[in-house]
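Phage Gp37/Gp68 family protein
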Amino acid sequence: MGTNSRIEWTEATWNPVAGCNIVSPGCTNCYAMRMAERLELMGQEKYRGLTRRSGGRPKWNGRIRLDDNALAIPYSWKTGRMIFVNSMSDLFHEDVSVDFVSRVFDVMKNCSQHTFQVLTKRSDRLRSIADRLDWPANVWMGVSVENGDYKHRIDDLRATPAAVRFLSLEPLVGDLGVIDLSYIDWAIAGGESGPGARPMEAVWVRSIRDQCVAANVAFHFKQWGGVNKKRAGRVLDGRTWDQFPTSAAA
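Structure:
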């Protein structure tokens, strides 16, 4: 649980679920797998047995752990903040019951001082249970799209009643081409970082930025990525892009 997140587009992280499994190319070098192994070695029981070693690196083994105690944490943060939900898992994983998802949504509704940013790669499950959830206005719902093969996730997101819908186009490992940005409020783009980082082409990012500008969608460029992401920076054509959504799409 982090109250001062290093992720550029949020302020804190909240993890009522831990553990995951790889579902698409964007998961290959997921930082959360490395972090879960590190937290286990530090003695955090919550992350014990969630990864396995493969090719000399930690990989998710598919085990999911629900943390009932973590549900109380947002109540203790009195000052409103942006909170990334489940940076160490996926709330819409098939092994997370609808009942538990609903309990997480209840917490988010009750903590109206915060803005909760929920992100999933399992857009099909999101879409299938969306009408069984109570969607408060302070929940921003997003899907990850790493290349053109997964743009269908955007259609699933669009079908939800979320007040704010956003796209995480990172790690961007392929050209997205033309993106349907209707009813989308925000797009985050960025390259992969860390060991084995795959390269991102500048033309892919410029295309996303230009489409967002044309569609009046807030655009946030997180990073160029690479093995040394700090050195690569996050300047795109002479400026940083730090836009956030100001209201839901009409």
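The chain has seven helices and eleven strands.
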